[in-house]
DNA sequence: AAGTGGTCTAGACCACCAT
DNA sequence: TGGTGGTCTAGACCACTTT
């Protein structure tokens, strides 16, 4: 076992300072980043690691926990712990309003969407405010898990006034295509981008560990008339998605 | 102790399903979000929590770990565990190129910057590529911890060709002000925004737990001539900063 | 000095996966 | 069935803060 020398109790003594689990974490991290452990390769079982490094299994788990959170390792229950294959990043330009489907197609990715929810519901207070719904009206909701090349990339939860999308079941691939058909394609959108730690349930859908960083994007789309068409919350995998924005210096503030 | 009833062993039995630490986490989370625990209020000591809920201290720590990672609780070594005060979010528009200082001043925040590093150095390979430096030339670096109303908000690490910033020690508040003075104020910039889990060292500077979500922003700024002026990596607290982008639908792709 | 969080241990049992 | 990760325990000692 090659790792025996890297992880020997003596090696740990000489590793960086701090608690044992940090030293162990650091040694493992260097082994991974340094290529001593190849992508997809299995780590020794936790019990073996504990014996090799002469620490308790709890300490091994704490070190591995960190590396899993950082995305360097992947645990598979009952199977083992493996060095992850890095996900290549995808970029989206912010200067142009496009749908996820159009966006990915342009890059040559095959996209797929798994339907999580689709139908007509009673609006939440937030939906009423964002979409400008009057009391008693209903709202169409479409929640989808977006995949690019069969890797989950984002969860998208869209709310649309039934006025513009009376038949949500017609939406199969692109929401914007269907809005085109109903004559309600938005021409302007405002996005709010922030970072968050992905909660357990969403993390499971995206295939990432709970607590991993995600890009949360709230988008409100407008018709030329100024009316709000849709309100979408998306959650992108932080390790797989970049947003690119071009900005210019000038006195031209945002359009009305 | 009010918590005794909320956290009693029986209450835990009836809480959501899953492992003990998840139930405990959920009960605590509901108590916090439901306002049963006020902001700034101290949680009972871990040992007490363990006894109240009739679980081991390790299990209590695992539940609390999660809530600390999510930012609902703050641990203070030797002092206690407290319900965090939420940080109000700040927004930055992406449609206009502004400096941090200008940006915050417009919102009425008082800003302060703690200098982390400032001087002239040998460039890294990345800096040479990004700034288009020729071999043997040097690079000016300014790293600062940005604060708004005395709360750390971002770490900013800027690299500038010495051609445009021969005397980095002149930069006190705004980098752009100094570039204005040397006649090298950029007119265009491209930003790449992504989410990441903040590493220990940076987390400490920002006053957030390691692993919390951060917005990583890489910015390359250009002169009107097209030359690159600066290359900046910023790391914003995910819980305190939003980026807002306005987009329009159209055939107008990004400018050359 | 007393109380708090931070780390660590040895051992146990369960749930899942491969064979 | 045997090996793997997932959870849990009781108890110990250390480091830091408060009094």
UniProtKB/TrEMBL annotation, chains A, B:
Q: CDD domains from the xrefs?
A: WHTH_GntR
List each copy of the HTH gntR-type domain by range: 18-86
Question: Which terms does the record give in the GO molecular function aspect?
Answer: DNA binding; DNA-binding transcription factor activity
PROSITE patterns according to UniProt? HTH_GNTR
What Pfam families would the database entry show?
A: GntR (PF00392), UTRA (PF07702)
GO BP annotation list: negative regulation of DNA-templated transcription
Alphabetical keyword list: DNA-binding, Transcription, Transcription regulation
Which SMART domains does its entry note? Answer: HTH_GNTR, UTRA
- What protein name applies here? GntR family transcriptional regulator
What top-level branch of life does the organism fall under? Bacteria
Q: Which InterPro entries match?
A: Bact_HTH_transcr_reg, Chorismate_lyase_/UTRA_dom_sf, Tscrpt_reg_HTH_GntR, UTRA, WH-like_DNA-bd_sf, WH_DNA-bd_sf
């Amino acid at each position: 076992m090659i790792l025996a020398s890297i992880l020997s109790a003596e090696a740990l003594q000489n590793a960086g300072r701090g608690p044992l689990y940090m030293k162990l974490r650091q040694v493992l991290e260097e082994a991974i980043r340094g290529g001593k452990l190849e992508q997809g390769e299995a780590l020794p079982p936790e019990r073996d690691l504990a014996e090799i490094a002469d620490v308790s299994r709890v300490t091994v788990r704490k070190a591995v926990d960190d590396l899993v959170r950082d995305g360097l390792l992947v645990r598979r229950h009952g199977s083992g712990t493996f060095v992850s294959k890095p996900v290549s990043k995808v970029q989206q330009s912010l200067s142009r309003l496009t749908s996820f489907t159009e966006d990915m197609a342009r890059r040559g990715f095959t996209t797929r969407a798994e339907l999580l929810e689709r139908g007509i519901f009673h609006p939440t207070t937030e939906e009423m405010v964002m979409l400008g719904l009057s009391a008693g009206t209903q709202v169409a909701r479409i929640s989808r898990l977006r995949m690019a090349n069969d890797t989950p990339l984002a969860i998208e939860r869209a709310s649309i006034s039934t006025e513009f999308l009376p038949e949500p079941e017609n939406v199969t691939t692109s929401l914007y295509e269907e809005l085109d058909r109903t004559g309600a394609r938005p021409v302007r959108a405002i996005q709010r981008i922030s970072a968050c730690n992905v909660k357990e349930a969403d993390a499971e859908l995206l295939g990432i560990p709970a607590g991993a960083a995600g890009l949360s994007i709230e988008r409100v789309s407008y018709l030329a008339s100024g009316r709000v068409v849709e309100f979408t919350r998306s959650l992108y995998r932080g390790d797989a998605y970049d947003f690119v924005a071009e900005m210019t210096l000038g006195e031209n503030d945002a359009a009305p």
